[in-house]
């Protein structure tokens, strides 16, 4: 089902304050949760069937919910992502930052869970945070029946939804073991975070004043401003994080992602940041932009690297490589998956220096059969590959010199290559 197509014809349009206001209202309507696109997808599940804490009524806006998009395909993973659409804490861009993103994850074998959280001006902090935390707890508490790992539940957010995702990534608890509600007994800490052009800082000039006002009201407590400037709340317990932004974003400047990434690095939290030179705010998956849309590929790579898209035990591999009888001065070795492990990415690789290489198990290949490719970076050799190998010596080697069987534990590879 497609969202309705909106057409506008502008003739002699003057950018008066009323004209701009009218346009903003039209586009806000396109992205709001109340739009037609919000009806697309699975049936909503109320986060609190008997009423959310602090609810001010019994209307739809008072009932936070989630929609679960189960992973499909031949190789579903045990990973889920709780998705928080943006909208400045005043609306929800439920389609292009919710439904479409959940379907994107489904194609990777990942379960998507889209959150409808409570909004200003009817609700202020901590209601949205409680809704997102409850969504994470719900998925974790139902992990078994959803065929998920309770240790592979992440959170994702766009714009103000990115602020909410960073809030639950820096403000969490392990659950209350004495709670009567079994959902409240489990942790609300996400196992990983994905932040897309996020609002991060509430106290800086590059923050987003509309989000601050909608979340905290007109006269916010300075202590809350500090607590919800999430770059100040990062600790060693903050989950590994992927960030995506554009340098041309005028709505939420890139400095938001930069300060959060710096805080993650300073605390030793694994993190990856991608900043594109061009692109406006609010692009979602950017399907019409051949460059900006590649951020989804970078996210897939990051999830592969962090073992969120494959199952199986990882192993270490190290060894020695000689080229024409001498240690390979400078090069790379790659373990490309053969057909039987095609879904066990990432593709492990390592730099070769003075003939030696080593790949620790934390980023190593999963157990299975791989093709080895070696490339020299210090000698002009067009394509030095495994076809040049004269000898392989390692445990559990296949008969063919083109493949190598990675076994559990430590693996050793010795290669003698010829450039002739």
What's the layout of helices and strands?
Elements: H1 17-31, E1 45-46, E2 65-69, E3 80-84, H2 95-106, E4 111-116, H3 127-141, E5 153-158, H4 160-170, E6 193-196, H5 209-216, H6 222-227, E7 241-246, H7 255-266, E8 271-276, H8 295-305, E9 316-323, E10 326-327, E11 330-337, E12 349-353, E13 356-359, E14 368-376, E15 403-406, E16 410-417
Parallel strand pairs: 3-4, 3-5, 5-6, 6-7, 7-8, 9-16
Antiparallel strand pairs: 1-2, 2-4, 9-10, 9-13, 11-12, 11-14, 14-15
Helix pairs in contact: 3-4
Description:
The longest helix is centred in the N-terminal third of the chain and has 15 residues, at 17-31. Strand 5, helix 4 (160-170) and strand 6 (193-196) form a beta-alpha-beta unit. It is built from eight helices and 16 strands. 42% of the residues are buried. The chain is elongated and about 75 Å long. The protein is α/β, with parallel strands linked by helices and 420 residues long. It has an eight-stranded mixed sheet with strand order 1-2-4-3-5-6-7-8, with helices on both faces. Strands 9, 10, 13 and 16 form a four-stranded mixed sheet that branches. Helix 3 packs across helix 4. The protein has helices at residues 17-31, 95-106, 127-141, 160-170, 209-216, 222-227, 255-266, 295-305; strands at residues 45-46, 65-69, 80-84, 111-116, 153-158, 193-196, 241-246, 271-276, 316-323, 326-327, 330-337, 349-353, 356-359, 368-376, 403-406, 410-417.
């Amino acid at each position: 089902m497609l969202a309705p197509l909106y057409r506008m014809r502008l003739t002699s349009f003057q950018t008066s304050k009323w004209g701009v206001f009218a346009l903003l209202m039209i586009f806000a309507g396109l992205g709001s949760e109340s739009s037609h696109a919000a009806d697309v997808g699975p049936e909503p599940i109320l986060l609190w069937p008997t009423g959310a804490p602090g609810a001010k009524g019994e209307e739809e806006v008072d009932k936070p919910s989630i929609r679960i998009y189960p992973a499909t395909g031949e190789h579903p993973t045990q990973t889920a992502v709780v998705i928080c659409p943006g909208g400045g804490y005043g609306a929800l861009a439920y389609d292009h930052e919710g439904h479409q993103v959940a379907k994107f994850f489904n194609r990777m074998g990942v379960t998507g869970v889209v959150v409808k959280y409570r909004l200003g001006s009817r609700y202020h902090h901590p209601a949205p945070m409680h809704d997102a935390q409850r969504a994470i707890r719900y998925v974790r508490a139902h992990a078994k029946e959803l065929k998920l790992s309770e240790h592979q539940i992440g959170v994702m957010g766009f714009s103000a939804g990115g602020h909410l995702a960073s809030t639950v990534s820096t403000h969490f608890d392990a659950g209350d073991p004495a709670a009567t509600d079994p959902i409240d007994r489990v942790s609300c800490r996400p196992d990983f975070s994905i932040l897309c052009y996020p609002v991060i800082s509430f106290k800086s000039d590059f923050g987003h004043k509309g989000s601050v006002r909608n979340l905290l009201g007109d006269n916010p407590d300075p202590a809350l401003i500090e607590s919800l400037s999430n770059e100040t709340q990062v600790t060693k317990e903050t989950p590994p994080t992927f960030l995506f932004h554009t340098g041309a974003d005028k709505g939420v400047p890139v400095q938001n992602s930069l300060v959060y990434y710096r805080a993650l690095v300073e605390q030793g939290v694994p993190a990856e940041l991608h900043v594109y030179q061009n692109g406006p705010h609010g692009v979602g998956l950017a399907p019409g932009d051949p460059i900006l849309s590649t951020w989804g590929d970078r996210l897939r790579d990051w999830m592969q690297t962090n073992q969120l898209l494959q199952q199986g035990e990882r192993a270490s591999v190290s060894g020695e490589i000689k080229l024409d009888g001498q240690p390979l001065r400078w090069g790379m070795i790659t373990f490309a998956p053969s057909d039987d492990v095609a879904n066990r990415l990432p593709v492990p690789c390592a730099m070769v220096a003075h003939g030696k290489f080593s790949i620790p198990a934390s980023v190593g290949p999963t157990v299975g059969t791989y093709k080895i490719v070696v490339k020299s970076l210090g000698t002009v050799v067009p394509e030095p590959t495994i076809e040049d190998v004269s000898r392989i010596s390692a445990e559990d080697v296949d008969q063919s010199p083109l493949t190598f069987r990675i076994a559990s534990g430590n693996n050793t590879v010795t290669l003698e290559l010829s450039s002739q």
